[in-house]
Amino acid sequence: MRKTPLTAPLIDQNPITVQILGICSALAVTTAMATALTMSLALIAVLVASSVVISLIRRHIPASIRLVVQITIIASLVIVADQVLRAFAYEMSQRLSIFVGLIVTNCLVLGRAESYAMRNPVWPSLLDGLGNGLGYALVLLIVAFLRELLGTGALFGVQVLPTVAAGGWFQPLGFMLLAPSAFFIIGGMVWAIRSLRPGQAEPDEFVLRTGRQEVAR
Description:
The two termini are 33 Å apart. The chain is built from seven helices and four strands. 54% of the residues lie in helices and 6% in strands. The chain has a two-stranded antiparallel sheet with strand order 1-2. A two-stranded antiparallel sheet has the order 3-4. Strand 3 (207-210) and strand 4 form a beta hairpin.
């Protein structure tokens, strides 16, 4: 099946599991499905809008200030997204705290603007932004699903597994609500994907020659 800018970032070029971008938010907002979903939607909106705007004006941006222009556009869109959240979902905005504002520092957003939107027409840039946003969201939601379910026995705040404290059988795993658990889950996903798709593994950096033997490093 031919990969497109929309479908390739879902698995084969996923921004988190392959490019290792956006890890900070994967640690910070994935203790609950609701926060992970909101963060994902905010990033998708900013990523798609910035890709479209930058692609539209790419021929008019002087090379010497292109990064300044890109960051200014992204920061403006992040402010809009943050204000929309404050206006229509104030409680969620408070739960996300500074992390919506930190979208402007997310390497994924600036990376797609610089490497793709600056070099391609509007429609492919829109698809690339949407595809990378969906790939990012997919990983965040998987991590949040495991952390919230195993850490609290709930999903979207609704109790799914009856806990011992409420007379049930499930003992929540407190470790899943700590940041290191996200590292382990993402590491496991990277291992699983690269085991199933060996082409995603990085080539050996060098080969150590020891007599007749060659040891890859």
